[in-house]
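Data follows
____________
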Amino acid sequence: MSGVGKSLIVAGLCRLLKQDGLTPAPFKSQNMALNSFVTADGLEMGRAQVMQAYAAGLEPEIEMNPVLLKPTDDTGSQVIVNGRPLKNMPAREYFAYKKTLIPVIRSAYEKLSAKYSPVIIEGAGSPAEINLKENDIVNMGLAEMLDAPVLLAGDIDRGGVFAQLYGTVMLLPEKERARIRGFIINKFRGDPSLLDSGVRTIEEKTGIPVLGVIPYIPGLKLEDEDSLTERFDRDWSKNALIRIAVIHLPRISNFSDFDPFEQDPDVSLIYTSDPEKLKEADLIIIPGSKNTIADMEFLIDKGLAAALKRLCGMIPVIGICGGFQMLGENVKDPSGMEGGGEVDGLGLLPVNTILQKEKKQTRTEGMINKNIRGIFSGLEGLPFSGYEIHMGSSYLSGHAEEALSDIIISTGADVYGTYIHGIFDNAEISGAILDALAKKKGVTLDLTRQTDQHIIRDKEYDRVADILRENLNLTFCSWL
């Protein structure tokens, strides 16, 4: 099922096999996620395959994730093919359409496999979703298409792992069962010998070996792919010196932007839609959104908009991408990219936004602009790198003919907006923000603990690879 740890296992295998001198690459034919990334050539792909690519020591390539679905509401998604938006589709329309994507998927895989070996394929959700098996292009249907052996992972942390594994196998036709070469039991806490009798029984009943029991990995500093992340359930850490509140939008995207603030044990970051929680924060962040207008209406309905206006000038506010658009005076959607219409923004920045048909997808780097006002004025001149993914262009009030060019827009009321995802990955930038918050509050942080995010993630790939090497029977590598 979703959330069993497939993405992390693939990343760990990519690093492990790279350590062993192979040239692995990840592949996921169809991903559904709001956390996305822009490749060096300006194409959009899911962040899970980005993480796996970096674990393999590779620059992310669009062939690693040729189809990306970004949910726009409860029943539809923006369909992105080969890194470019195709159109928004209701679920039923996409279900009927997706088989036409097989040539795209096959071509992407063939390009990857011509350069890298092995290609490690991640499925999506469960291979036993029998209501969706027709025209399957991501699980057992893909394995059949590419003649790939399969490892089936189950999550013991949520209970019922043997039922998960047995039930999945029994719901598959015999031809597909034969592709499953081994089980992986993931996220185990405790003494694995206690599982011995269960392991023997599941092997006897299915004829499939359990290749390993992978322990739960606490405190892992790698980004989560989607809304199943445990971080959305956290409350403030006790005795935290600095508290950061990220507003939990219904269509939140790219929440991995805020991982750098979670490095310091004296900093507590939570996701919340409770207006009362905002009063307790030292910094409020409005994150990216896949539907700015709908999520702005959510802020209004939940009383968050009123709370943000009341707290303006007392607690600094940063908006990223869609959150930046919400901080402005209004957002208009004349082309119906998010369902049409318009909405008044928070009015905390002198900015107006028009959503457009052409999606901006680009990597960007440089120096943060001059003349930043307020508590974060120390950011001026610091180097940044990141990427933009958004449908709209924003304009300063009274200047509708010229799109904004500054990296950060600020006011004297400590309100800041930027389109740049990943801007906090630079330890100088996240450190400068935390230092300013600490000085305002009269506390001291050990900012030497702030490290560039790519360095932290690289060490974590090695950590996951070591755990897999220790706990997984790697005889399946003989297939490679």
Remarks:
- The mean pLDDT is 93.
